[in-house]
Design goal:
Blueprint (H helix, E strand, L loop, with lengths): L2 H7 L1 H14 L5 H11 L6 H12 L6 H24 L3 E2 L2 E2 L1 H5 L1 H22 L2 H24 L7 H26 L4 H25 L5 H4 L5 H4 L5 H9 L2 H13 L5 H10 L2 H19 L7 H15 L3
Antiparallel strand pairs: 1-2
Helix pairs in contact: 2-5, 3-7, 4-5, 4-9, 4-17, 5-7, 5-8, 5-9, 7-8, 8-9, 9-10, 10-16, 13-14, 13-15, 13-16, 14-15, 16-17
Length: about 325
């Protein structure tokens, strides 16, 4: 089963999610509509809303609230992108100008705030306190992850455990919430709900690990951003952390200086060290281990095509080149 098969399997559901997104993006303020629609229409894999759909389907949910919550998850994700690009001073995402490059930082921050607040309006419509709790906790944890990442920038002393903590907060938490929400809607048992949460957390961690690998190995036409963006921002991601650990003192010092200074001038020498220490292979192995944990967690789910799609989605997360 390919990612195209998964998309085809949930195409009708995702079409319903897109309709909710279009309706809920409405605002009487034209700039809000303009910026929101620009970032939503810029592409993206829509993995997080797909997780809500697949999780709910795995438990036989037949209502409509999963469309609303899938849109909520996408709005929260989009808000983080708007804010991230301002913090990182990014100019390119998904092969298009970022919203902040096009509309300015102020508009990006404020429209991100609109998407957050609209998300909470939509959560209330589901009228389920457990759903509210999961999404409120997730949003708060993501904000903590953003701050942790900011503190780690230009710091070459960040170790692997600290790095993993950041991505479990910043990236994986929303994957976890999306997976858990479908289980809640489907009246899963506590054990099944927790299994879906574990699946989402480890899937999200693997997804970010591969993103970090692609920053040193991807084709910018595939990834939609410039190679070396993380190093330019002084982000100590796993390939760099491992290369410093596995390389010579001289190689480690070269990477330390590149992290501290940021920018792109030292990218090629750093890339050479990453390749010489097989750091990308190590990061991919870590991602594969996360996926094995994720898929192992959902063995307790009843057999269904939705479950099979979840397993195949995990395979896509580590095999992708974009």
């Amino acid at each position: 089963m390919s990612i195209e098969h998964i998309r085809s399997f949930i195409a009708q559901d995702m079409g319903a999610v897109d309709e909710v997104i279009r309706q809920k993006l409405h605002s009487h303020v034209a700039l809000i509509r303009q910026v929101s629609e620009y970032i939503i229409d810029s592409g993206g894999k829509r993995l997080r809303p797909a997780l809500v759909i697949l999780s709910a389907g795995s438990f036989g949910y037949t209502g409509q609230f999963h469309y609303n919550l899938a849109a909520v998850v996408e709005f929260i994700h989009t808000a983080t992108l708007l804010h991230d690009d301002v913090v990182d001073e990014s100019e390119m995402r998904r092969n298009k100008e970022t919203a902040n490059a096009l509309f300015g930082n102020a508009a990006s921050v404020l429209v991100g705030d609109f998407l957050y607040s609209r998300s909470f309006q939509m959560m209330v419509e589901v009228n389920n306190m457990r759903v509210m709790q999961v999404l409120a906790d997730a949003t708060n944890t993501i904000a903590e992850g953003e701050v942790l990442q900011l503190l780690n920038c230009r710091d070459p002393n960040v170790d692997e455990a600290n790095y993993l903590r950041v991505i479990r907060f910043k990236t994986a938490k929303l994957f976890e919430a999306a997976s858990r929400l479908g289980a809640i809607l489907g009246n899963a048992t506590p054990e099944q709900e927790e299994a879906m949460a574990v699946y989402g957390m480890h899937l999200g961690t693997a997804f970010q690990l591969i993103d970090d690998v692609l920053d040193y190995s991807g084709d910018n036409l595939d990834t939609g951003k410039n190679l070396g963006d993380d190093l330019a921002e002084g982000k100590p991601t796993l390939p760099l952390i491992y290369a410093m650990r596995a390389g010579t003192a001289e190689q480690a010092n070269l990477i330390r200086k590149a992290i501290e200074q940021g920018g792109t001038d030292g990218f090629q020498p750093v890339l050479d060290v990453i390749q010489q220490t097989a750091a990308l292979d190590y990061a991919r192995q870590c991602a594969q281990a996360e996926i094995e944990t994720a898929t192992g967690a959902i063995t307790i789910l009843p057999e269904s095509e939705h479950k099979e799609c979840l397993i195949q989605l995990a395979g896509f997360a580590v095999a992708r080149n974009y």
